[in-house]
Amino acid sequence: MNDDLVFTPAYQLAQMIKQRQVSAVEVLEAYLNQISQNNSKLNAICTLNENALETAKQADEALTKGEDWGLLHGVPITIKDTFETKGLRTTAGYEPLKNYIPTEDATAVARLRQAGAIIIGKTSPSQLAGDYQGINDIFPVVNNPWNLKYTPGGSTSGGAAALAAGFSTLELASDNGGSIRQPAHFCGLYGLKPTDRRVPTTGHIGDTTSMDFRCIRQMFTVGGLARSIEDLKLCIKVIAGADNRQPDIPPVPLDEVDEKNLENLKIAWIDEIPLYPVAREIKSVMQAVRKKLVDARVDVESWIPQYDFAKAWEVFYAVGTYNLMYIQGTDFKNVREQMAFLWREATEGESELREISKVPSISLPIFMKKSLQGYFAALTQRDNLIAQMDRELEQWDVWLCPVAMTTAFTHRAKGAAVEIDGRKVPYQMANGAYVIPFNLTGHPVVVIPIGFTKDGLPIGMQIVGKRWKEMELLSIAEKLDEIIMGFRLPISL
Questions:
Q1: Mean pLDDT throughout 252-277?
Q2: DSSP 3-state assignment of 27?
């Protein structure tokens, strides 16, 4: 019964609890037992909520009185430890914040609570949400449930590991450079990065604890990780919408879905962008996906947009540097770690690929000589690239493409090169080449699991949609997922 409960989708658990087929207390205890048995291997949950059991009891009592708390009544969820949670430690994996207890919730957290969700705990992120691995100053390194020697990705590291291992039904996550999508790919999960400004970022660490002004105003999104697309739909319905604490979030309602049959969809597909060669096993699985869809009479065409991906990479790091330069920790340890990362990024990996990536040479000059004119120039370039991607995607319902050049890799220092088919690829490029363009342009993306490597590591695929069309994108992703694969349990647990 325990395994059945902890791997039951959130939307089904909500129905079961409301129909009194199972109590919120039983569900929570099943998850707590799963965490107790397995978290020491994964280090996914960094802080348990001591009040969760009492809240579950209240959820059951409410039902006896005919009270309905909302879409997630009594359902246990986890929160990435970069979101402020009232009365519950929030660290962002950063030592100066190791004892920080917020006095109010991040907006998305508050909305999940208001929908009846029970926060079972916080999940360990990369430090200040700034890496593609689960490494930080406070908690042990997060391991991948499919192979403990490998990273689950980042920065939503603990969240992805927790979901794959049955510690949670749903993870509130953030994505500024692939932090939802890359962990979904590495752990065999579903992930949604919504349109830029679809969900408030209020209360996410970085702009909330050490200064009186907001820095991150572009490319940063809040979304979710789950074990089903239906749960991603549930999540976005709860967390999306305008926020009086963040006036730049527009009051744009979620789109109404114009349901189309699969045979009426126009789908673009690519297994590789020539500038960023992906691992052979990823290409092979992407090709198998296309064959499955074609066999199911889905119109799938090979296509690469007329889009300057090299310029997009450069502009992303330019805008990102302007956004982040004021909020990075200035303590000696953090500065030393950042310099070590930049050194590795500048010196590790094949020289030809380093010349394409060139992250340090983009960021350091801006950091050393920032200017308002330079910031506005970068934003203008971003506007042009958004418009260019909009025009290219207009002819398609969705575009299918890889998530990263690599699958999950073994733990290593941040910035250390990743070996892909015998080539040493710069760290940021290996992880970010396929996700960063859509942070830059703000387009919504769903990741679904599509297969495995010969060593049993998951492979995911990005499904890119039109801006402000999350529900349409999720509907199409659900149809494709029925043909392609579906979530599977990790073999290492």
A1: 94
A2: helix
Q: What average pLDDT score do residues 291-312 get?
A: 96
Active site residues: 80, 155, 179
How does residue 327 score in pLDDT terms, banded at 50, 70 and 90?
confident
Please identify which residue in the block is written with the tokens 């790919």. 185
**Cβ contacts of residue 335 below 8 Å, gap of 6+?**
329
Q: What is the pLDDT of residues 140-157, one digit of tens each?
A: 999 999 999 999 999 999
Whether the pLDDT of residue 207 is over 70: the answer is no
Q: Judge whether 176 and 132 are in contact, CB under 8 Å.
A: no
Q: Where are the alpha helices (DSSP H) in 43-106?
A: 52-64
d(CA 419, CA 221): 29
Cα four-point dihedral sign 417, 149, 79, 339? negative
- The one-letter amino acid at 224: G
Classified as helix, coil or strand, 191 is strand
Cis peptide leading into residue 124 (ω within 30°): no
- Global pTM value: 0.97
- The 10s digit of each residue's pLDDT in 357-416 is 999 999 999 988 889 999 999 999 999 999 999 999 999 999 999 999 999 999 999 999
* CB-CB contact of 485 with 451 (8 Å): yes
Helix (H) or strand (E) holding 99: none
At residue 36, the 3 state secondary structure works out as: helix
491: pLDDT confidence band, cut at 50, 70 and 90? low
What are the residues whose beta carbons fall under 8 Å from the beta carbon of 161, sequence distance 6 or more? 42, 43, 44, 123, 134, 142, 143, 144, 145, 152, 167, 187
Residues 6 or more apart whose Cβ sits within 8 Å of residue 62: 68, 69, 73
Number of other CB atoms surrounding residue 156 within 10 Å: 39
What distance in Å separates the CA atoms of residue 199 and residue 195, rounded to the nearest whole number?
8
The DSSP string of 203-271 is TBTTSSSS-SS----SS-EEEEEESSHHHHHHHHHHH-S-BTTBTTS--PPPPPP----GGG-EEEE-S
At position 461, the amino acid (one-letter code) is M
Is the pLDDT at 1 greater than 50? The verdict is no
- Using DSSP, state whether 12 is helix, strand or coil: helix
